[in-house]
Amino acid sequence: MPRPFLVRYTGLAGSLLLAVAAWLGGASSPWEPTVTPRTILAGQNGVVLPLAWLAGTGLLVAAWVLGRRRVPSVRWAFVTAALWAVPLLPVLPLGSYDVYSYACQGWQQSAGFDPYSGGVDLLGCPWADAVAPTWRSSPAPYGPVFLVLAAVAAKLGGSLTGAVVLLRVIAVAGVVVIGWCLRGDKEAVFLVLASPLVLVHLVSGAHNEAVMVALIMAGLAMRRSMLMMGVLLGLAVGVKATAIVVIPFAVLFFPGRFRRAVTMIGGGATAALVAVSLGSGLGLGWIAGLTGSGVSVQWTAPSTAIGMTLEMIGVPGAVAVTRVLGMAALVVVLLLLWVRALRKGDPLLHAGLALAATVLLAPVFHPWYAIWPLALLAATPWRDTLWLVAPCAVAGVLCLPDGYNLALATKAQGAVVMTALAGYLAWKVLHEAKQTDRDRRRPDADHGGDRRPRREA
């Protein structure tokens, strides 16, 4: 295993190389795809940019994966994560153009428009040419809490650069809150704050996952106040509706006061969400805007990949059907997880697994979505499993510096591989369930497998 010194400075070297890649070809204004498989092969932007991205990502992922079990202290974890984050702050955003969409939605909100009624092509924005073409006609898919924050950033920033800087400050503040909630566990702090996903997509890319996850973590930490737990979780839903899956598990933190927990947490969440929705002047129109994110069709979402594979072999309209089936399966899985948490306890673990199931079974997956379960499961025994670490490591290399998703260049191959993997995992789950059932029915199952006959009293 590598020493902490080697881990720290290997990751720092990776971060510095990613900063070079961001400087040369990060998400810039106006929108322009600077790094694609075609431009890399043609050498249009030289070799420094792709090499810096490849080497930097490799070093950062390696340092994170190999160093997660060699964390000497909480302080070391915080300092290391900060060292890795600093080089990414003064350069262009990495991995996505979404922060420019945030800036325009914030400008629309601050100018008195309704971001849920249309995209920048309809409502306008002085920075519209920075928004990726895919999203220029889409209304805001985020809750009113985040739109209010984006409006503050756009208003105070006064320019695109100023708005992006303030949006990044908000994201970094969210990361700090996440770290504060994990501060009692050195491995959890390192696993989350030093993750390439957090560094690239939250610190650099300023994705609003930072705010949503921070509110979830802070809410679940409020064990002394059911009402405050509900308020913070409601505000998290007001950033992204995905956070709602955590609320049913939050009430299980109070097993002896179940009814009171349902009333206080549910009431606090509802009151906070309604208050921000009405106070912002947006109402509840954001709920209808959630469907806009489904425009993306990529194999990284298993239900979509299965549909893509079926369409390749001649089944028309399969993607729409498999996506619906995936959402139906998600409802069943969430219900089963909640019942299991009710019977066995450990609501934090099951809330993390619920977010993992949401990521896996939703119709769309973007790499930064993997941060949702990572932040919660990092504080549970699941942090040591490859089922958590490996997907996060893979997700960390999916986006090129300017936001081009490598899944777009591997649609057919990726769909087939993901379908095969989903089939294997389904078989494995069913096989283990059958094995567990057989073990339970064995006559000696109650004796821990001890086949020796009992002595008569």
Question: Can you offer a commentary on this structure?
Answer:
The protein is 62% helix and 0% strand. The termini are far apart. It is mainly alpha-helical and 457 residues long. The protein contains 20 helices and no strands. It has helices at 4-25, 37-42, 48-67, 74-85, 98-110, 120-123, 144-157, 160-181, 186-193, 196-204, 209-221, 226-237, 247-250, 258-279, 302-312, 318-344, 347-361, 371-377, 386-395, 411-441. It is globular.
Q: What's the tally of helices?
A: 20
Helical proportion, percent range = 55-70%
β-strand percent reads under 5%
Mean pLDDT: 89
| First-last Cα distance | 54 Å
Low-confidence blocks of residues:
445-457
